[in-house]
Amino acid sequence: MKVFLALMCLALVTVGGCKSGKELPKVDGIKWKLVELNGKEVVLSNPESEIFMFFDSADKKVNGRAACNRFFGNYEMEGEKLTFSSMGATRMACPADSEWEDEFFEMLEVVDAYAVEEGRFTFLSKEEPVAVLQAVEQDMHTPKQ
């Protein structure tokens, strides 16, 4: 009986150890500001505009602002894979930074992986970086998005 119990314990430890040893990085509760897009530094014409994202890992939701328009959708993060789906956005007219916004939304469609290191969240497509976002300290008086 002791041998049977020992074998069962060993089997449970082995099965438990089969899960991915890599924990997903914490990305939710952080404001991620876009600083590079397709190899170009992001410089918007309106200094009060910015492109940023918030992740909600409990509901697998993402939302933010793409220079002018607000956006929202779903994301899936598993291992080193990352994909966005069911994305939607408001449609306000913002001619000044529309090229950045259009390029940002196009980029989200091709993301297939990511890397997080030292406060930088890099989106990848076919192993190549397509966007770099920087963790931003939030002002305590600014409402969370």
UniProtKB/TrEMBL annotation:
Pfam families from the UniProt entry: META
Residue ranges annotated for the DUF306 domain, each copy included: 28-128
Family matches, as PANTHER family: HEAT SHOCK PROTEIN HSLJ (PTHR35535)
Name of the protein described by the UniProt record: META domain-containing protein
